[in-house]
Here is the input.
Amino acid sequence: MKLENAKSTRKCCVMCGQEREIKKSREGHPPTIPNQNKGVCTDCDVKVWVYYKTGLQIKWCKGCKNFRMWATFGAHGHGVKSKCVPCRERQRENYKNRKEMAGEKYKKQKQKQIAMMNVKDGEC
Here is the structure.
């Protein structure tokens, strides 16, 4: 017995047209369509696609969640990149900022601990 209101767990990939499971992001087989992939299956999101009329090469960027020109992924010699150069630069900057903020927070905590120890020892 199938429920009328049950949400479909299968969807066709917007690139290859194959019917795939809709799942949360996960690696492995069989190919699925992760919720954050806008209808692109895990087989198609790693491939470089060539538009036959113009020869334009495009690839799915897992950072901006969009198809970008293959050239925007930078040097192609060291494995297949999953994010375009602007997304990798943005990620690098965000990581750097998080590390700096964590370092400042750690320094403040240490200063607070030292101040607490001085108060316990009777110093001001």
Remarks:
- The two ends are 75 Å apart (CA to CA).
